[in-house]
Write a structure and sequence with these properties.
The chain has 168 residues and is mostly loops. It has one domain: 3 Solenoid (Pectate Lyase C-like). It has no helix or strand. It is elongated. The relative contact order is 0.11.
Length: 168
């Protein structure tokens, strides 16, 4: 099996061009990737616990089963990114663009998604319990089977969203 096992713990990679980078299984705990270009990067199973990804470009990135717990992704661009099975517990995604992203089975419990754009996103079976979705755009999103217990949906746009079997 070909794996990347890079250790980039706490390093400053702000503004770096990591487009198409192969960083699967990398340890990026606490790394500063603010404003970095991670366009179509492979971050499968990477550890990004507490990382700073504010304003980062993650369009089309693969983040399958990545650990982003406590990470700051405010204002990040994740259009079309695949985060299937990722851990985003307590992450800050305020103002992030996740339109068309795949967030199936993702743990977003306690996450801040206020003002986030989730238009057309796939959130099937996602755990959004206690998440802040105030002012978020969920238009056309698929939330079937998602857990929205104690989530704040104040002012959220839900036009055309699939809420089948959603847990309230």
């Amino acid at each position: 099996m070909n794996r990347t096992t890079a250790q980039i713990v706490g390093n400053d990679l702000s503004g770096a061009n990591l487009s198409d980078a192969k960083l699967s299984y990398a340890n990026l705990t606490g790394a500063d990737l603010s404003g970095a270009n991670l366009f179509y990067a492979n971050l499968t199973a990477a550890d990004l616990t507490g990382a700073n990804l504010t304003g980062a470009l993650l369009t089309g990135a693969l983040l399958w089963h990545a650990n982003l717990s406590g990470a700051d992704l405010s204002g990040a661009k994740l259009m079309g990114a695949d985060l299937t099975g990722a851990n985003l517990t307590g992450a800050n995604l305020s103002g992030a663009n996740l339109s068309g992203a795949n967030l199936s089975g993702v743990d977003l419990s306690g996450a801040n998604l206020s003002g986030a754009d989730l238009m057309g996103a796939k959130l099937m079976g996602a755990d959004l319990s206690g998440a802040d979705l105030s002012g978020a755009n969920l238009s056309g999103a698929n939330l079937s089977g998602a857990n929205l217990t104690d989530a704040d949906l104040t002012g959220a746009k839900k036009t055309g969203a699939n809420l089948t079997a959603t847990i309230w």
